[in-house]
Amino acid sequence: MKRSFLLLSCLMLAGLVMAQTPPATWQEHWFEHNQLLNRKFYDNDVAVYYDNDVSNSVTWPNAFAGDVWRYTKSVYGSFGTDPHLFAIFHTNKYSGGHPSTYFDASHDNRNVIDVGPGPWTSGAGNDLDIVTHEVAHIVEGASKGVKNSPAFGIWGDSKWAEIFIYDVYRGLGRTSDVTRWYNLMINGTSSFPRANTYWFRDWFYPIYSAYGGTQTLNRYFTLLAQYFPKSGSQYSRGMNWGEFVHFWSGAAGVNLKPLATTAFGWPASYETQFNQARIDFPFTYPDGAVTVYKNCSYGGYAIPLLPGSYTLAQLQAKGILNDDISSVRVRSGYKVTLYQNDNFGGTSLVKTADDDCLVNDGWNDVASSLIVANTVTVLSETPATVATQIIEEAATTRKGFDIYPNPVGNVLNLSTGEDLSGSMIRVFDIGGRQVLQGKVTANRIDVSALSKGTYMLVLTSGGKSVTKRFVK
Asked: How far apart are CA 85 and CA 83, in angstroms?
């Protein structure tokens, strides 16, 4: 009896292993695809297939596609019962690529990335990006056991993929690709939802950097699966803009309406949708990392602020008057640095916890600019910075001003027709912390004491200020 049971168990296990072994060939039968594919490699996580025009000398997908898929599953969980990603490569056909998921009978209920036109011989740059891009679509379309992507109508084909690719390269420790991808994305613009929208710079990267990185991306899909309307195992509709901001606020753990306003604008329809979303999907989050108040004991106006740097003009735009702050609330993990003068000048005061009356510090109605920052820098090792987290361009800027070389070694040169000797300079790191302060000497700044990273230079002279980003 025991022997029969053992034999039956072995047969069942063998059947399971055979069922999970990718086929040696696979006939395409979707869209215009009709190639007979040959399996070139497989392990427990990935199966790589080529058509007959892909050179057998191309082997980098074996490791890379597997690494991307293993990392993806470690973050977002499993995608169906078959652990494999089926990675299909074509040469000289099928421009671009497409994904499919285990929900789709069209691709035999497999998680698939199908890419072309090749020839895939570099194993770098776009070769890597397109593979990771298609995996991003599997994540958005099949995470947490639910089919479809309610946000696709908002972020389209590539905006989610941009931050996903950045995170994957970081997670895999591909430092040069992190830098390369960041530089490709940081100034990229879109015409949706309005002209000159910086999706990566003004939305996803600030969220990623300030509010938890990888975990925040995963929390978005967890909240979506928990709360968003479904019909069976698929989402039943797309989301509107207010719902989009609400779900990302829930993932970040803070009200992202101010960030969304900067990134996308905030018409009345968004406000209505956002307020309704907070009713329909009752997960909560605080309204700011720091809240400033007009009066002591948290009285008068209450203005929530996300991590970022705020000149006097930016404070006034939010309804905060000059020399008017009397108390502050500071969420755990954040700090606020108050400055006596505009453009982060004069004496300063740092608060890492609530203070119901700044009178005790001699700071009642004193602040003219401030910086909100994390007390722990999430991305201290990255070669990038958050545009909204450090210093934004000042209200009055100096024309014809530039800095070089960038990246810099030990000396940063200021390119301008003016003699800036004696001008005040401040340098801030990725977390918004001031790391250097002094005066310019002969239009040169000694930055030899700074460690490698990305910084923001703020130069103030003659009542005017300018900011410039540089990398060391």
From this structure: 7
